[in-house]
Model the fold of this input.
Amino acid sequence: MAVDRHAYSAAQVLRDPWPGALLALGSVLVLLLGVFYPTFRSMVTTWSNTETYTHGFLIVPIVLFVLWRQRHALARLTPQPAPVAAVALGGLAFLWMLGELVDVWSVRQFSVVLMIPVLVWLILGARIAWQMKFPLGYLLFAVPFGEFLVQPLMVYTADFTVAMVRLTGIPVYRDGMYFTLPTGNWSVVEACSGIRYLIASVALGTLYAYLMYRSWRRRLLFLAFAITLPILANGLRAYMIVMIGHLSDMQLAVGVDHLLYGWVFFGIVIFLMFWVGSFWREDTPRPLQPNAAGPQPAPRSRGSNHLVATTVLAMGVLVAAPAYAAWIDREDRWSAPDLGALPERVGQWQLTDAEPDWAPLYHHARDEWQGSYAAGGDAVGVYVGVYAEQNRHGKMVTWANTLIERNSDDWRQRSGGRG
Done:
């Protein structure tokens, strides 16, 4: 019996579930971007304004490049919607809403980025999502995260630098993050912490390990190397800059060349890291087993109705959390409390007209007191902020509320630890 090859190909195309699945996935991803646009915009703003996270602009192109490399392996799989993934999607939407209510950007950003692999799982199925696990997981590097490491990295850098200077035989006096050599004064600030080198090294090292190794053991070992090396190298970089400044009588490495030396040194460190890693590379692709029967028609999926229902379910979950958050914050449902005026006298303390020397940088309080009291030659400042019945723009626990201005030169931490 003769078979019309062209007719067979047309029938195969009609049964191919990929076009419809990709259309559904594209639709929910566009909706995700639109509904959570402020969260995505906050990430891009951070990439633009903070040098530590400028690598975020490269994450999506890298992910698309890796997916393109996987296109042949993905084409052999058949999309099968997985409605069970809607539970995970709902959990992430709820987590985003909690981040919205307490105004924590990192929670919102991680939530929306994690929604992307869950949507792939929901629309295309578990097998395809697992095949795409690396590029989907690599999206997490787009989230501006890691500021909590700045302080411990600054302490490490100061400890390492001072120890190496003393080991060199040069006397040095240290006071917190400040230290003095016979030729001049130095300080370890946020830019000296090496956080930007560490984050960039981990992002590049993760991609390198995926592309160059096949075994998980080698990948994890190289990733540990990519984490450890920039931390050690940053301490050495700080020591070298201090020594250059000291030996040149503070003529070199004290201005813009300070930063130039840092980036040049980091480039050399990354080159050495990749060079060392190349000795154990195993990036030769595994040979593909030829299919003697030729391309086979795709297995029949559960039907377009099932895909449409799953897509509608995903859209409903995506819209629900922002809609509920907007409903909560649509208006102030309670009148702001009124503290009235500051009491003229509290025990032996008398209210004065003097302006307080300091007040915490807390914003959007429902009402507040601020003033100065004096008694027996002593003076104190008083600040009371009320955050009862908080609304969207009246939260106490937010990143913006701090005791002192970040990066302020007027204040210095003298000690740390548990209270």
About this structure: Confidence is low (pLDDT under 50) at residues 1-14, 288-301. Strands lie at 173-175, 178-181, 184-187, 345-346, 349-352, 367-375, 378-386.
